[in-house]
Amino acid sequence: MLQPFEKHPDFVVRQAHPFNAGPPPRLLSQSYITPTNLFFVRNHGDVPEVDIHSYRLQINGRVLRSLSLSLEDLQDNFERVNISATLQCAGNRREELMALESIPNELGWGVEAISHAVWSGAKLRDVLAEAGVERETDLPLHVEFGGLDQVERHHKQFRYGGSIPLGKVLSPEVILAYEMNGEPLTSVHGFPLRAIVPGYIGARSVKWLDHITVQNEPSENYFQRHAYRLFAPHVRPETVNWADGVMLGEMNVTSVICSHDENERVLPGPVTVQGYSMAGGRDIARVDVSCDGGLTWIQAELFNDATCWAWTFWKANFKLAPGNYQLVVRAIDTAANTQPQDISQVWNFKGYMNNAWHRVNIKVG
Question: Percent of the chain having pLDDT more than 70?
Fold first, then answer.
């Protein structure tokens, strides 16, 4: 089937308007660098049309010099760097939470709202230095990203935006990207320019970027102050105090089985279980895999490119006789963080940050 934006024919479309989709898990785990036609898409509004000739990136706020930069200015005047980074939507694996209890008005993502690419562009700290923002500062400032995409929430129209602390911005991995996997950004992935904030939820890597503001407080944008917040499992929409929610930023440790579908039937004998894991700004130290629902475990073999901003692929081999099995995976990062066993421990009415043990039931025989 022909998919929008030249995406793979097997792309799983979760929403047509705005377009939200991702790759089938088996295809997701076949290549460490996700081909652009398989890279997941998370949009909150329609993809904007950008006139590159009139396009400018505006930088202002608490800076010594406001800047107005064309894409050519960025490419010609700032060092080009490559960052190998995985982006993941905060709503990845929401379907599992929805199976426990209804989560209205949110996209039902499976395990596909994650992908990895090599991004090329300018370090944001270099661009801000040109605007007079010092790298060494004790000021608790924030950097707001604003996109060109128009969204509508609660009968109000506005542009998408979000922010991250200045301390993160001044790290070398945060870039203004104009290329993805060696090619100019495509329209659906943020042409002509997007922020890449490795280790943070994908919502902070704002696409179609047209302004950056250095300011005292986090962004007032709906998607920073309201939408992307985490609440305790007992909180419900009718009882929520929005100020109590945790403003999402860094990703937690997680792992997912990609090689098998729920209730899949496989042949007896050797069975290879594969998938991905990641831990925000930390490395994966170990991945454990079980075939009996978590009663016993074996340690998986890990495959990665030795960067904490990238996912880790893993593989574990079992020899299974006919019967029913529950495959389970859990990861541990280099700070000894691991995943909660039960999905009820992480359920929340927005469906964010699900990192409970991932389970897949299979039938052998």
Answer: 99
What does the alpha-carbon distance between residue 46 and residue 50 come to, in Å, rounded to a whole number?
12
Q: Given the DSSP bridges, would you call strands 209-215 and 269-278 parallel, antiparallel or unpaired? A: unpaired
Answer positive or negative: Cα dihedral of 122, 124, 130, 131: positive
Q: Which amino acid is residue 160, in one-letter code?
A: Y
3-state helix/strand/coil string of 110-165: CCCCEEEEEEEEEEHHHHHHHCCCCCCCCCCCEEEEEEEEEEEECCEEEEEEEEEE
Assess whether pLDDT exceeds 70 at residue 171: yes
Q: How far apart are CA 341 and CA 241, in angstroms?
A: 28
Of the candidates 98, 89, 94, 105, which has an alpha carbon nearest to the alpha carbon of residue 237? 105
179-214 pLDDT tens trace? 999 999 999 999 999 999 999 999 999 999 999 999
Burial class (CB in 10 A: 0-12, 13-18, 19+), 347: buried
